[in-house]
């Protein structure tokens, strides 16, 4: 399961999300949106993501903002694998 977290400098919810995943032993790639090419950033906006972090689970769910409910589900799925 590949997880990408799009983050921003000083984003408290980004740090909270990454902290939860780290504590659960779930690997992820963090990508600073400031480093994205404009087309890739526009593609995220086109998917109606409006806040950080944006969490993208390959072959699964995607969401924006800090979502404890989604993180619990993701951790349960990771344990089941």
TrEMBL record:
Gene3D superfamilies: Glutaredoxin (3.40.30.10)
SUPFAM superfamilies named in the record: Thioredoxin-like
Residues covered by the Glutaredoxin domain: 3-59
PROSITE patterns: GLUTAREDOXIN_2
Family annotation (InterPro entries): Glutaredoxin, Thioredoxin-like_sf
Protein name in the entry: Glutaredoxin-like protein NrdH
Native source species: Agromyces humatus
Designated gene of the protein: nrdH_2
